[in-house]
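note to self: dont lose this again. the chain is below, predicted strucutre after it. 78 aa total, dont forget to put it in the shared folder this time
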Amino acid sequence: MHYPIGIMHGRLSPSRDGRFQYFPKDDWREEFELAKKLDFSSIEWIVEMENFESNPLFSEQGRKEIKMQSKHHGIKVH
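---
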């Protein structure tokens, strides 16, 4: 039986500055593949002020890429 369990963005990437909750600006794409391999069903997206400009959520092209990754890996984004 599969239970829909998600993960917070950044938890599947190497820690940055000892933090466990952050937006993985360099690894966000890879987190979709890792989430699928670990049988998660969703990723909760993180927004940080310090990386606001590099967060793909805030550009049209970035949102298209997020949707493509989501569909390709079967991982929903919250």
